[in-house]
Structure formats: C-alpha cells, structure tokens
C-alpha cells in the first residue's frame, strides 16, 4: 500500500472512532407531558454531559382574568430558556421571564432528573398583558407537575 492510501485509511479509521464519542457528547433531551385543571402541558429540557441544562420548551394553559370586567378565559403560554444552568445533585431550577401571546410571564420551573431515566418538573407561570398605555389589562396564572423521561415523552 502506498503512503497516501495508508494515510487515508488511518484518517478514515480515526474519524470512525470519533463518531461515537461525538454522539455521546450531544445534549440529552428530557421531556414529558402532563395536565393542569385547564388542559395539557409539556416540558422539554436539554441536558449536557457536564451537568448543565436548558429549557428547550415549556407549555401550559393559564387561567386569565380580564382586569376591566373580571371575565375569565384560558390562554396557552409557551416559553424557552436557552441559557444553560448547572444541575445540583441532579436537581434543576429555572426562574426567567418570557413573552408569549402578548403576555409577559415569570416562569419558574424546578425538579429532579433521576439516574433511572425518570424525573419530574414543577412549572409555575404568572403573566400579565398590558394595554397601549402600559396598564395591566389581564392577569394570568397556572401551575402543574410534569413527569419527565430521558429521551423525551413516551410515544402515545
């Protein structure tokens, strides 16, 4: 075998050996679905091997009250938090603001990821919608507990 072919074969072998380690270094999704009194909820986290997590997506239905006439309605809220926060003993805690459907909300998400591939998240959201003059026109809140699984929600 000539030197060029040997070098090519060596590089291909090294590249093939590097593929499993690169795939193993990819973030692991943890996700699940749940319900509160108003409807379905969903959470998806991304966890790196160095023990840092981010919120890929969290969704739930909020109970909203109109500030003017007091009527109540249900609204969907959808949030993401891309900053990675460290896990502490496989526990996570996020506290951030997000804008969804014209409502600015404080999202608090905390829970635990267990080594058996199961975990849980508690989600709490308080949000407000403001009018053109900056006055609060609607107040919303919602909370739920979502069971989590490594790899995402179980297929239905």
Keywords:
elongated; single chain; 8 strands; eight-stranded antiparallel β-sheet; 14% helix
Task: Describe the SSE topology.
Elements: H1 3-24, E1 28-36, E2 39-47, E3 52-66, E4 72-86, E5 91-100, E6 103-113, E7 118-130, E8 136-150
Antiparallel strand pairs: 1-2, 1-8, 2-3, 3-4, 3-8, 5-6, 6-7, 7-8
Q: Could you characterize the architecture of this molecule?
A:
- The protein contains one helix and eight strands; from the N terminus they run αββββββββ.
- By secondary structure, it is mostly beta strands.
- Strands 1, 2, 3, 4, 5, 6, 7 and 8 form an eight-stranded antiparallel β-sheet that branches.
- The protein starts with a helix and ends in a 6-residue tail after the last strand.
- Please tell me how large the radius of gyration is: 22 Å
Number of helical regions:
1
Biggest beta-sheet profile: 8 strands, antiparallel
Strand content: over 45%
Structural class: mainly beta
Please state the overall shape, judged from the principal axes of the Cα atoms. elongated
User: SSE order in H/E notation?
Assistant: HEEEEEEEE
Percent helix: 10-25%
Number of E-state strands:
8
Mean pLDDT: 87
Identify low-pLDDT runs: 10-23
User: What is the straight-line distance between the termini?
Assistant: 54 Å
């Amino acid at each position: 075998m000539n030197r060029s072919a040997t070098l090519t074969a060596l590089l291909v072998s090294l590249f093939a050996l590097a593929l499993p380690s690169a795939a193993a270094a990819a973030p692991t999704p943890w996700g699940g679905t749940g319900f509160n009194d108003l409807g379905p909820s969903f959470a998806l986290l991304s966890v790196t091997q160095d023990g840092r997590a981010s919120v890929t997506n969290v969704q739930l239905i909020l109970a909203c009250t109109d500030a003017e006439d007091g009527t109540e309605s249900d609204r969907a809220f959808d949030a993401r938090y891309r900053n990675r926060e460290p896990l502490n003993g496989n526990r996570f805690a996020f506290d951030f603001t997000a804008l969804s459907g014209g409502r600015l909300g404080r999202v608090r998400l905390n829970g635990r990821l267990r080594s058996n591939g199961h975990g849980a998240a508690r989600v709490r959201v308080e949000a407000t919608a403001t009018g053109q003059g900056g006055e609060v026109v609607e107040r919303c809140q919602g909370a739920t507990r979502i069971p989590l699984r490594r790899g995402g929600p179980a297929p239905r």
